[in-house]
Structure formats: C-alpha cells, structure tokens
Write a structure and sequence with these properties.
It contains 9 helices and no strands. The protein is an all-alpha fold. It is globular and about 55 Å long.
C-alpha cells in the first residue's frame, strides 16, 4: 500500500504511462507524451522518472510485483514449510494457471508488446527489458530450486529461462492477435511448464 503523497503521485504517473502504452502505438512515445497523458509538465514527470527508460523500468517492476503478489497470495508463506520447502505439482499447476490468466487481459499483453517495440529501437529501454527478464527468470529459478534442490543454480536458471520462454511465447501465439487459446492448448502449456519445473 502506498503511504506517502510522493508514492501516490508516482503511482498515478505509472497508471498514466500504462494507459499510453496500452491504448496507442507507442514505439515513438516520448516523455512528453507520457507527461501529457498524466496531465503534468514534463519537468514534474522527470522529477520522478528522469528518462523514458526509467519510467518504463518502473512500469515493468510494478507489473512484476503485482504478479509476484498474486502468486504469493495463492501459495501462502513458503517459509513456514521448513528448511527445504517443496511445491506439489498441484500447487505449481495453480501458479501457472494464474500466470496464464494474467495473459487473458489484452491490456497486459499489449503493455509488453509496446515496451518490446520501444526496446527494438532504443538501447536504454532494451537494457531495462533485459534487466526485467533477468529478474523474472531469477524468480522462476527460485521456484525451480524449491522443487528440485539437487540442481545447481546454472541449471535452475536454464530451466527457468525455458519456462519463461514458454509462458511468454504463449502470450503472443495464443492471444486474440495470434491463433487464440483453446482450453486444450492452455492445458498443454501448463502441463509442459509444470513438467519443466518438476522434471521427469
């Protein structure tokens, strides 16, 4: 929960940035465009987010935090499970169902598509996107380590990167823009992701 006036203002600016990213074609969007959407002067926006990359970083970090909170809420406090917590296949399945359900929101998918489009022509934004996915993969690797503590970190990261590729690819291929997601395809995506996490 945001408890300061500055924090509330930042949240409002991020809300406006998300609206810009999800309602227009934004490969050329500038800080001025984001400031106009928020109804503030560009200097005010830059007080919180000096560059477009800083603004996009904050948007992505907030999106990831929301997702982690939803997953944590579904899973409960893992630290209460003992020294070597493990997730059941059923729990892991539930987590992937939550992740795929997030992709049912067209604005969520479009947010990332637009950020990727900006990153294709702006190296500072591309660096932000790389950092975001490094963090995302790291969180999934932590999940893999809970289930398969025998794997070393590099192997957990490799499994996690594959899982993220599967889930993120589904966002595009199985969106309304792609072939569409059937119940059968959704089940297969979840089965494959759970299989990657838990192993053979």
């Amino acid at each position: 929960m945001i408890s300061t006036k500055g924090g509330q203002r930042q949240a409002e600016l991020l809300d406006a940035a998300e609206r810009v990213l999800t309602t227009r074609g934004n490969a050329d969007a500038s800080l001025r465009d984001f400031a106009a959407a928020a109804g503030v002067r560009i200097g005010h926006l830059q007080h919180y987010f000096p560059t477009r990359a800083d603004l996009i970083r904050a948007v992505l970090e907030r999106a990831l935090q929301r997702s982690l909170e939803r997953l944590s809420s579904a899973l409960g406090p893992i630290e209460e499970r003992g020294e070597q917590p493990a997730l059941t296949r059923s729990e892991t399945t539930s987590l992937f169902e939550i992740l795929l359900a997030e992709q049912d929101d067209p604005s969520c998918v479009r947010l990332f598509v637009e950020v990727w489009a900006i990153a294709m022509s702006d190296e500072s934004t591309a660096a932000v996107v790389r950092d975001f996915y490094t963090g995302y993969v790291g969180h999934v690797a932590d999940l893999v380590a809970c289930v398969r503590p025998d794997l070393d970190r590099s192997r957990s990261l490799a499994v996690a990167a594959t899982v993220v590729s599967l889930v993120e690819g589904a966002a595009i291929v199985h969106s309304t823009v792609g072939v569409g997601r059937s119940a059968e395809a959704r089940s297969e995506i979840i089965r494959a992701a759970v299989g990657l996490v838990h192993g053979p």
